[in-house]
Write a structure and sequence with these properties.
Length: 224
């Protein structure tokens, strides 16, 4: 059988986005809305997910499922990537901090929508691979460093938005400190052994409001 070409892959991406839309509609009661932002959906259709996973699982890249990427980690299910991005609502003038680069798929989605993305990854092999891949695809507004994500990236703080693709028992204080007043943090938080996708808004006075949405399953935040 001959390999798929770009036209085939574009069709599969479109089908993936259609499945995301169905999933969002089915979860509308929990989410409080039935559709995700059109900008987010368009970015999901543009970014080639098959390049951000190992070759062995690339044929499954456009199924709505997480995929293994090595070191016991996965790239998140496309619906979850789209949902977290929608909840974060990155804007073209904003700077975003990402915790947990992985192989860079979520980074690419964020870079499509935000002005600048600063991403922290604890696994050096992931960081170097993601950096080369994103650069090769023309993403010039993403910078990656190897480090402990719980410490954020203070040299570039404060951030308009922060997204963590790893689950934590509690919100790292450094991330809250590095979030601008009026900013938003989206991350999975563990509550009684169950992870919940959580939104934390910081109002102009610096007060925090936290909302839990849906149960999720992410790798745990690793610290140094």
């Amino acid at each position: 059988m001959k390999p798929m070409n770009e036209e085939h892959l574009a069709i599969l991406r479109r089908h993936m986005v259609e499945m995301i839309a169905i999933h969002a509609d089915l979860a509308s009661e929990e989410l409080g809305k039935a559709t995700l932002d059109e900008r987010v959906m368009a970015s999901m259709q543009r970014v080639p997910r098959h390049l951000f996973v190992p070759a062995a699982v690339a044929p499954y890249a456009y199924q709505d499922m997480p995929l293994p990427i090595g070191f016991g980690k996965t790239v998140s299910q496309p619906f979850i990537v789209a949902l977290m991005t929608d909840l974060l609502s990155p804007q073209p003038h904003e700077t975003v901090l990402e915790i947990g680069t992985g192989l860079g798929y979520q980074s690419a989605i964020l870079a499509e929508l935000a002005g600048q993305v600063w991403s922290v990854e604890i696994i050096e092999e992931f960081a170097s691979h993601a950096e080369a891949l994103l650069k090769g695809l023309g993403f010039s507004n993403v910078a990656i460093r190897v480090g402990d994500g719980s410490r954020g990236w203070p040299e570039h703080a404060p951030f308009d938005k922060i997204l963590a693709s790893v689950a934590a028992e509690w919100t790292p204080p450094a991330l809250l400190n590095q979030l601008k007043p009026g900013g938003r943090l989206v991350l999975p938080l563990v509550s009684e052994e169950v992870q919940f996708l959580t939104i934390i808004d910081k109002d102009p006075a610096g007060q925090l409001e936290t909302r839990k949405l849906i149960p999720v399953r992410f790798s745990r935040l690793e610290t140094i």
